[in-house]
What we know:
With 131 residues, the chain is an alpha/beta fold. 50% of the residues lie in helices and 12% in strands.
Amino acid sequence: MTASPVLADSCWYIEAMRKGRNPMRELHAIAFTRDLATCGVVRCEVGRGIKDPNLRKKFQARWDIMLYVPTDNALWNEAERTLWELDRKGIVLPLPDVVIACCAKRIGAVILTHDEHFQQIPGVRATNQIF
C-alpha cells in the first residue's frame, strides 16, 4: 500500500516562510515517499501573501505539478454539510479550513498544518510533523 498524499495547509506554508524556511524545499523531501497535493484555497491564501513576483512564480510552478483537488459542486456540498453538522455541535470553524479538509478527505490525504481546527473535523487526518 502506498503512503497517503500530503496536503500542506496555508498556515504551514506561512509559518515556514515567517521563520525563514523554504516550505517548497521541505515538501520536496516528502515527495520522495508521498504524493503532494494542493487546492485552490491553499494556493490563494498563500499566493496572495507572497510579495516577490519571482518567488510567487516559483511557488505556482511547484503547485502546478502537485495533485490538484478541484472544488466541484460535490465538494462544496460536503463542505456545507460538514459546516452545518459542526455548527449544530457548537463547533464553529472557518470556511477555508473546512474546504481544505474536504479536499484532503476526497483524496485520502494527510493535512500538514499547525492549525488545530483540523483536529475537530471528523474523518480528517492532520499533523504538524514532517514525514
